[in-house]
Hints:
Blueprint: H1 3-42, E1 45-58, H2 66-71, E2 80-88, E3 91-97, E4 110-116, E5 119-125, H3 140-152
Parallel strand pairs: 3-5
Antiparallel strand pairs: 1-2, 1-4, 2-3, 4-5
Amino acid sequence: MNTLTIVLLVITAILLVTVIVLYFLGKKAQKKQEEQQAQIDANKQTVSMLIIDKKRMKLKDAGLPQIVIDQTPKLMRGSKLPIVKAKVGPQIMSLVCDASIFDSIPVKKEVKAVVSGIYITGVKGLHGSIKPQEQKKKGFFKRALEKAQEKAGAKPVK
């Protein structure tokens, strides 16, 4: 056989094994995530709180309890998480927020939040409605793409 053919067969075999391994790891991670989500849903409570501050910061700088820091995987300790500092009742707490709702949380306002332990999963306005965040300014290429799609008669991509 030709050396090029052997090299291509080896590369194909390695890619095939990698895809199979990633498929099974993905299924396992998905099951784990579904179990965690079910546990979060089972323990959720609605709490009234005053949001003092919100930031994306490293776990060790967030002011969370030491047991939380010890239980997180070592790779996650250096990553930045959405942290909300809020006054819940008489005490001020640091809470971890869901990344999907972090931008919609108003600062220095009282809200009703759905909380599971130290994890905020949802927010509703207590006094008045929560204003939606302003649209971010679009970049040059995004605007050019939208113009081209509009001229072609296609739907714009969000």
